[in-house]
Amino acid sequence: MAMTIHVDIVSAEGEIYSGLAEMAYASSVQGELGIAPRHAPLLAQLRPGEVRVDEGSGVIKSFYISGGILEVQPHLVTVLADTAVRAADLDEAAAVEVKRRAEETLSGQQADFEYAKAQAELSEAVAQLRAIDRLRKVRQG
After folding, report:
1. Is 69 within 8 Å of 43 (Cβ atoms)?
2. Contact assessment for residue 52 and residue 79, using Cβ atoms and an 8 Å cutoff
3. Can you give the pLDDT at residue 42?
4. pTM assigned to the model
5. What confidence score (pLDDT) does residue 120 get?
6. What is the CATH number for 60?
7. Claim to verify: residue 34 and residue 95 sit in the same structural domain
8. Segments in the chain below pLDDT 70
């Protein structure tokens, strides 16, 4: 049996995933991270995007997070997310609409607050669409 690491993905709404994995992948603000069992301890800020959990035997579970913190211990990975959703549960039409509205707001002359909010919404919508696209490619492949 391959070595495993315990992975917990938790958001403000509650625990979304808890289980053993051979590898875990997340997007930090410094770049893509791959975490294997016995990884060195690490704390990293996560950007909006996908977290993938490779349970072995070709089973990879995908989740979308809107940002958060990653804590790695030799036998435990904890993702503390602002918001976490199973990638399969993402609503592509809603993400496209949020992206469209944010781009529209950014193209106009709005107040600084609206501009910053639109930038955050655009970043989150694009990250959701990337996660949806990646999941679609995995299903087709």
Report:
1. yes
2. no
3. 95
4. 0.69
5. 76
6. 2.60.15.10
7. no
8. 1, 88-92, 95, 109-113, 115, 135, 138-141
CB 41 within 8 A of CB 51: no
Domain boundary among the residues 69, 87, 105 is at: 87
3-class DSSP state of 8: strand
Q: What is the pLDDT of residues 99-137, one digit of tens each?
A: 777 777 777 765 556 767 777 777 777 777 777 777 677
- Amino acid making up residue 135: L
Residue 51, CB-side half-sphere exposure with 13 Å CA sphere: 32
Single-letter amino acid code for the residue at 90: L
Distant-in-sequence, close-in-space partners of 41: CB < 8 Å, separation ≥ 6: 72, 73, 74
> What 3-state DSSP class applies to 78?
strand
For the record, the structure tokens of 32 come out as: 């893509």
Distance CA 33, CA 31 (A): 6
Q: What tokens does 121 get?
A: 């919404």
